[in-house]
Structure formats: structure tokens, C-alpha cells
Amino acid sequence: MAGFDYSVHPFWKFLKDNYSFEETFHFFGPYAGASVRPHRINADMIRVEMPLLPNNLNIVGTHFGGSLYSMTDPWFMFLLMEKLGDEYIVWDKSARIDFLRPGRSTVSAVFYMPDSEVQHIRELVSLHRKTIKTYVADIIDADGKLVAKVEKEIYIRRALGFSRGDTYK
To answer: Domains of the chain (ranges plus CATH)?
Structure first.
């Protein structure tokens, strides 16, 4: 059985090297199709917005659940990959979304990864070889009401000594 290369794909490296953060995600099909727009606030924080448009409506005229999840999918993993660097493998392990009310306006979510959390992860991995961390993102509407809550489980380990055939158990 062939192993898996956990490094950033060359296409994403090309986009990162040649385009701004916001421009890079205009090339990403699911985000372009659902009108998802990420904004870099600072090194620790990303804010993602999605207006309610015909291309992301569900059958009853509210935000399509898959688009709500998609707008939250990569950000904790992305922030950790950036902050931990190539010495670590960072991988989405599981996710759960709890739909709390229909999204009828522009929705947004904020993803925050402070340096103190990154340091804590480094310490955990140093002690235990790997760790699984859970993060939560709230999707809110234009009135500040909670539309959905997304829970992401992220697997993290040192890349050194990782065999290409290993899995993240």
C-alpha cells in the first residue's frame, strides 16, 4: 500500500506564492461556487463570510448546509499548518455541524489560533508524539444570531520519523 504525502500540494504553494490570501481562495471551486469569502484579520485570525445568494440556497430558500460547513472546513487546519510549519503534520480528523436556525442573511465565522495554543500543541506533541485537538467555530447571521456550530477535530504530530505508509490513528 502506498503512503500518503502530507505536505502542501504544489498548486496551493503556487497560489500562496503568487496571489494574496483573499485572491487564492477565488480559485477554490467550492468557495467560488458558494460565494464564500475569507479575510485575513491577522496572523492569528481569519474571518469568513458568505452572503445568501441563489448559488448557495437550499430547497426552502435558506443557506445550503453543505455551504455552511464548507465555509468553516479548512481554517483551523490552515492556521495550524502555517504556525507549526513543515516540521508538523496537521490533518482534519473529524467534523460535526449542529444546525441551530436557518441562515437567511450573510453569515460569518471567525477562526482564532493564538500563539499560546500553538505552544501548548508543541508541548503536547513533544510529550505524547501526537495530539488531537478540538476547536469550535460559530456561524452567525447578520443580526448576530447563532445559525450553526461546527466542531473540528484536528490531528497533529511531528513530521520527522513519520513513515509514508503510516495512518493517523
So the answer is: 10-158 (3.10.129.10)
